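User: quick one, sequence for these tokens?
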């Protein structure tokens, strides 16, 4: 594959040399492009020697004024590593003041961005907003690692390993429209079970994981029906959103939309209990104590498990302990093909977070941990595994 390697001006620029070497080893053709700041950290000659090509550095020193257009057209993927806070900002704004910025605007293929910077710069809302812009544009962000940083601080900001960046590049190229023809039925968010006209029981689910799954499925060409409990998230582009409130309403909509579905994913945090007879008026504070008698809600996933046909059925297990055994238990008891187990209740992953760290329990007996990444990234990896699982189950059934 013909890859543009954009190198920003950070201390991690030296790691881009290792990335270039790995890509060359895998028979890719690599065109290095360095910003002015990158050249302060590492000599273009290093990349010229590694890639066997002249490194592009200066917008005005190239032979033809429109060379950036032909270079953009010739290449199949652009990876920017390290992407500094400044470079991310310039890409987000579409500034074309140097060769890399110009090339980025002229390039229409997939873009992988691997940030590296000081932890405070990484966590700054400006940086995060710029990254979100790039994500919305469909670029794959390779999250930085946590650890000791060159600035002496410890935390997220260290450029991901070159091997991880290569893996992200492979995922990006394989991704394409590989869910075309699939009809994905998704549930997301919490449910609300009313206690009276003004009160309800619910949980901390934000819906972010389910919405990320909907966005990823739609981006990969699937038709997506998203049945969502009450959340504060915009409807993902290209997705049919069906808002519901209670577990009973969610069940009704799931079965109303089940027939055409080829993949069903139950990411919703469904309330397990509800009040069967909700008072018509607000309950008054008449007694010193009160107790509630609740009845179980329908277990939608278990019912789906009994009626799944040859659909792929994926459940979630939100746990505070015993993640893998609980995920496996739910896989069996609810007749799922995969259960995504995630630890909830912690500070940085799970319910309200933008990031997650999950483990996939598969019907094939495999257990696959997915290391911490953005929920959008995790969503893509879940679909990669769903497609693999389909192939494995087909092979096992002798198709
Ligand atoms: N689920 C469902 N209907 C319910 C409860 C759960 O469809 N009434 C689904 C969830 O959408 C999720 C999976 O079942 O995909 C597991 O949910 P979870 O709350 O973790 O499990 P429970 O079966 O409720 O088990 P427990 O509360 O014992 O952990």
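Assistant:
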């Amino acid at each position: 594959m013909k890859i543009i390697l954009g190198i920003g001006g950070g201390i991690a620029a030296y790691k881009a040399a290792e990335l270039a070497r790995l890509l060359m080893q895998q028979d890719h053709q690599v065109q290095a492009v360095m910003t002015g700041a990158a050249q302060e950290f590492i000599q273009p000659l290093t990349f010229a020697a590694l890639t066997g090509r002249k490194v592009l550095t200066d917008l005005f020193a190239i032979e033809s004024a429109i060379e950036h257009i032909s270079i953009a057209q010739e290449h199949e993927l652009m990876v920017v590593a390290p992407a500094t806070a400044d470079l991310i900002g310039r890409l987000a704004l579409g500034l074309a003041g140097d060769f890399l910025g110009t090339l980025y605007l002229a390039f229409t293929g997939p873009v992988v961005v691997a940030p590296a910077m000081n932890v405070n710069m990484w966590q700054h809302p400006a940086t995060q907003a710029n990254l979100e812009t790039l994500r919305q544009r469909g670029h794959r962000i390779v999250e930085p690692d946590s650890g000791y940083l060159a600035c002496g601080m410890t935390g997220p900001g260290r450029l991901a390993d070159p091997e991880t960046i290569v893996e992200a590049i492979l995922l990006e190229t394989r991704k394409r429209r590989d869910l075309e023809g699939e009809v994905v039925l998704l549930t997301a968010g919490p449910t609300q079970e009313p206690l009276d006209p003004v009160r309800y029981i619910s949980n901390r689910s934000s819906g972010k994981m389910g919405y990320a799954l909907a966005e990823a499925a739609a981006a990969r060409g699937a038709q997506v029906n998203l049945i969502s409990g009450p959340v504060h998230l915009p409807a993902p582009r290209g997705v049919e959103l069906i808002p519901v409130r209670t577990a009973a309403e969610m069940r009704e909509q799931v079965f109303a939309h089940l027939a055409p579905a080829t993949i069903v994913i139950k990411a919703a945090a469904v309330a397990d209990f509800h009040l069967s007879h909700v008072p018509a008026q607000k309950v008054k504070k008449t007694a010193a104590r009160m107790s509630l008698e609740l009845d179980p809600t329908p277990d939608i996933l278990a019912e789906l498990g009994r009626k799944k046909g040859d659909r792929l059925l994926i459940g979630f297990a939100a746990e505070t302990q015993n993640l893998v055994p609980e995920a496996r238990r739910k896989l069996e008891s609810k007749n799922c093909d995969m259960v995504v187990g995630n630890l909830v209740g912690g500070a940085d992953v799970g319910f309200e977070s933008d990031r997650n760290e999950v483990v996939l329990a598969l019907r094939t007996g495999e257990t696959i941990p997915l290391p911490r990444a953005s929920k959008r990234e995790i969503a893509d990896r879940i679909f990669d595994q769903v497609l693999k699982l389909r192939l494995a189950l087909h092979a096992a059934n002798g198709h």
